[in-house]
Amino acid sequence: MIRTFSWITLCLSVCFGCQSYVDGAKRTFGEVTDDAQITAVVKVRLLNDPEVKGLRINVTTVRGVVTLEGRVPSDYAREKAIRITRETGSVVDVEDRMTVVE
Predict the structure, then answer these.
(1) What is the helix (H) or strand (E) element at residue 33, kind and residue range?
(2) How far apart are CA 85 and CA 68, in angstroms?
(3) What is residue 26's predicted lDDT score, i.e. its pLDDT?
(4) Looking at the 3D structure of the chain, how many domains does it have?
(5) Rg (alpha carbons) of the chain, rounded to whole number
C-alpha cells in the first residue's frame, strides 16, 4: 500500500510539476510539488473511504487551498469529504463545490 501510494504521489508530482497560474502569477517548483502532493494524498484518502466514494470528486490544490468538485451520494458524505480533506497535512483551506446526488 505504501509503495503504491508513493508511486502515485511521484507520478502526480511529475504531471503537475510544470503548471503555472492562469492569471500569470508564478509558483516555485516547491509550491507546485507541495500542491501536487496534497492533491494526491487527499484523492487517495477520499478513494479509500467507502462512504465518500471519491471517484466522482475532483480534487485541485492551489497554494494549499483544496477545491473539491463533483458529486457525492449524501450530505454526510459531503461533510466527511470536507473533514478528511481538512485533516490532511498542509491543507490551508477547503473550498466545497460538491453536489449531493441521491
Answers:
(1) helix 29-47
(2) 9
(3) 80
(4) 1
(5) 14
Q: Which domain holds residue 54?
A: 2-17+25-100
Nearest to 37 by CA among 11, 71, 69, 2: 11
CATH of the domain at 80: 3.30.1340.30
Q: How far apart are the first and last CA of the chain?
A: 31
Per-residue pLDDT of the chain (102 residues; tens, 9 = 90+): 556 656 666 555 555 544 444 444 687 888 889 999 999 999 999 999 998 988 999 999 999 999 999 999 999 999 999 999 999 999 999 999 999 997
Give the Cα separation of 70 and 86 in Å (integer).
17
* Grid cell in block for residue 2: 505504501
